UniProtKB/TrEMBL annotation:
Pfam family, any one: FLYWCH
UniProt keyword list: Metal-binding, Zinc, Zinc-finger
Name of the protein this chain belongs to: Uncharacterized protein LOC115219713
Residue intervals of the FLYWCH-type domain: 4-62, 196-254
InterPro entries referenced in this protein's UniProt entry, alphabetically: Znf_FLYWCH (IPR007588)
Taxonomic path: Eukaryota, Metazoa, Spiralia, Lophotrochozoa, Mollusca
Transmembrane segments: none
Molecular function (Gene Ontology), one example: zinc ion binding
Domain of life where this protein originates: Eukaryota
Species annotation: Octopus sinensis (East Asian common octopus)
Length: 656
């Protein structure tokens, strides 16, 4: 059976034939040991498994030292005994030493001379001193005497000095000794209550006598602090145990700054109130400022910086806000109804109900929209919060740049909801200069816009025209053929190219396309869909049935000639960018509004640029090149003798 003795740091040593071995490695269930004199070129090794010594190889190049073994055992006893008895340190040492031999004694801290661990029994006595200390509350001399009284004569010559033994006693953790020292409390005058303030990053700083300390390290249960001016060679240090300052060493090389401390306490209160209350930033600042002195006011950060701090703190706490499960349960805090600049942002709230509708915008946005001649409207379903059906955006074309100016959260896609939305927008904006509205091909929204803007040109988005056509391609299981067959793809896009033919010639162009273009049989359902929905079926007599969407609504020929955007592509690009910014489909209402406020901040920059005469590019380079090429083709329409060739040329510049 393997025998082990404790080490000073608590790690076990293997004892075999009076020799001590230290652990070298573990492999599987086996442990490999090397002689503790391995650094003196002793090659003896041992191997154990499950508490049994399996083998010992090589010979030692030195003699065994049994006194050293006993000294280690005593040292372990000194460490553990104070936890079990309330005796004084002196009694602990005396009790441990009573079992020690005279050979081990010189190694123990019973004399004021340098420790020379010459024997194996000395560590045993040192360990016993620690055990005695942890089991009693006696003084260190009494502990040493107690240990020495039990020490064998053979161990005495190798015992450590008394000063080292007392130092060992003092190293026993405070919380362990406190268990046995309830009846002997420490002098409260030797410690003081620790005070803390928060740093800018929210970390604790120790406050002692008007000086601030930052955390240096933590050992066992004690924390060590260094002056916050340590980079300026201030060597003052402090040590705390729990909420008590144990000691302060060194002198500061600078004066204290009570104003700085008060500023930190002010900012700490600002952050705490921001987390715990829903008060406005102005009220939070006023509440915190009521406790500061006039001398501190000049050192406070600017008011705008304090408000930004409040917004940042509350932004981090958004996840902790209750997320409403129904639209009627939404209760807005003041910060969610205003922009980052403090302007009113929630301009319309229909009130707590299942059909609740919210409209976000600013007075400046409405002013810009009122000056726009061309307005674009489109909805999105991916970026909207989970308790709403869609986000409907209204953009205005200003100096060739599309600006998102109104954001509406709609509960459903019913006709009465769209009518209510359009009517509400019309009460917010006069639309005194409006000439055209471009929207998607949502029949209920088209009807709502026609009802409220009967004298305005209503156009459909070319982007959504292509999207509708592509959905039918997919519905008829032609997606793979469209993506892999270039000729088939071009023939489908030639249907889309009819939007760039003068309206009075569209029907003739469609007839020529069907007659000359070779459509495979599987593509005929797509052609029939296009004719039924966008052109109207021919009647038995002359004429055609009315299509679902009027030809003038989706024709882009005149719009391209007038340099007007033929599509809602700018809104689609904005929706995709906003979805990436939110980084999650169907986010919470609070996350959505925060991202919408960020978007409004960017919007305000673009508005200022446009109002100052600066140019902004709303489309990508590819879109600008395509628009330029389409205008060139429409201007040369009369030069084409074969309309199918014209449709083919246009089809190369459009996509579904």
């Amino acid at each position: 059976m393997a025998e082990f003795v404790p080490k000073e740091k608590g790690n076990p040593l293997l004892l075999f034939n009076g020799y001590l071995f230290v652990k070298e490695k573990e492999a599987g269930n086996r442990t490999y040991w090397k002689c503790q004199n391995y650094n003196k070129h002793c090659n003896c090794r041992a191997k154990t498994a499950g508490g049994e010594i399996i083998s010992v190889s090589c010979e030692h190049n030195h003699t065994a030292n049994p006194a050293k073994v006993e000294a280690r055992r005593i040292a372990k006893t000194v460490k553990t005994e104070p936890e079990e008895t309330p005796n004084s340190p002196q009694f602990v040492i005396s009790n441990v030493a009573s079992h020690n031999s005279t050979v081990t004694t010189p190694v123990l801290p019973l004399h004021n001379h340098t420790v020379i661990p010459a024997n194996v029994e000395a560590p045993q006595l040192t360990g016993k001193v620690k055990i005695e200390l942890e089991t009693c509350d006696s003084s260190p001399p009494h502990v040493v005497s107690t240990v020495a009284s039990d020490n064998r004569f053979a161990s005495t010559p190798v015992l450590p000095s008394v000063s080292n033994m007392k130092r060992t006693i003092q190293q026993v953790p405070r919380e362990k000794r406190a268990k046995c020292s309830k009846d002997f409390p420490e002098d409260p005058t030797k410690t003081k209550k620790a005070k803390f303030v928060q740093s800018e990053k929210g970390k604790p700083m120790l406050l002692v006598d008007g000086y601030l300390f930052v955390k240096d390290k933590e050992l066992k249960n004690k924390k060590y602090w260094k002056c916050q001016n340590y980079k300026k060679y201030c060597k003052c240090r402090a040590k705390t145990d729990g909420d008590e300052v144990i000691s302060v060493s060194g002198e500061h090389n600078h004066a204290g700054n009570p104003v700085n401390v008060e500023v930190r306490r002010f900012m700490e209160k600002i952050k705490n109130d921001s987390k715990e209350t829903h008060d406005s930033p102005q009220y939070v600042i006023l509440n915190a400022a009521s406790d500061i002195s006039n001398l501190t006011v000049p050192a406070l950060p600017p008011l705008s910086s304090i408000k930004r701090t409040i917004r940042r703190v509350r932004q981090r706490e958004i996840c902790g806000l209750p997320v409403p499960n129904h639209r009627k349960d939404i209760t807005f805090l003041d910060e969610y109804t205003k922009t980052n600049r403090g302007d009113d942002f929630l301009l319309f709230d229909s009130g707590p109900s299942e059909d609740r509708m919210l409209i976000f915008s600013t007075r400046q946005n409405l002013y810009v929209l009122d000056s726009c001649q061309n307005v674009f409207m489109d909805g999105s379903f991916k970026t909207v919060p989970v308790i709403f059906d869609q986000l409907y955006t209204i953009q205005g074309l200003k100096n060739g740049f599309c600006l998102p100016l109104i954001f509406g959260l709609l509960p459903n896609r019913k006709e009465e909801t769209y009518i209510k939305f359009v009517k509400t927008v019309k009460t917010l904006v006069l639309f005194s200069n409006i000439d055209s509205i471009t929207t998607d091909f949502e029949p209920t929204m088209i009807k709502a816009v026609r009802t409220e803007f009967d004298s305005v040109n209503l156009y459909g988005s070319f982007f959504h025209l292509g999207h509708c056509l592509y959905k039918k391609v997919c519905a008829f299981d032609l997606k793979e053929k469209y993506n892999t067959d270039a000729h088939f793809s071009l023939s489908i896009r030639m249907l889309l190219a009819l939007a760039f033919v003068p309206t009075e010639q569209v029907y003739d162009a469609f007839g020529a396309l069907v007659d000359e273009a070779v459509y495979p049989p599987e593509a005929l359902p797509v052609v029939d869909y296009f004719e039924d929905t966008w052109l109207g079926r021919p009647c038995i007599r002359n004429g055609r049935r009315p299509p679902i969407f009027d030809l003038k609504m989706w024709s882009c020929f005149d719009r391209v000639q007038q340099n007007l955007p033929e599509t809602n592509n700018a809104i689609e690009v904005w929706h995709r960018a906003f979805l990436h910014q939110v980084s999650a489909n169907r986010s919470t209402i609070w996350r959505f509004i925060e991202e919408l406020k960020r978007e409004q901040s960017l919007n305000e920059i673009n508005i200022e640029k446009l109002l100052s005469g600066m140019e902004c590019e709303s489309n990508t380079k590819e879109c600008r090149i395509s628009a330029k090429q389409l205008k060139k083709l429409t201007e040369s329409f009369q030069e084409y003798t074969n309309v199918v060739d014209y449709l083919c040329a246009v089809a190369h510049n459009v996509r579904l």
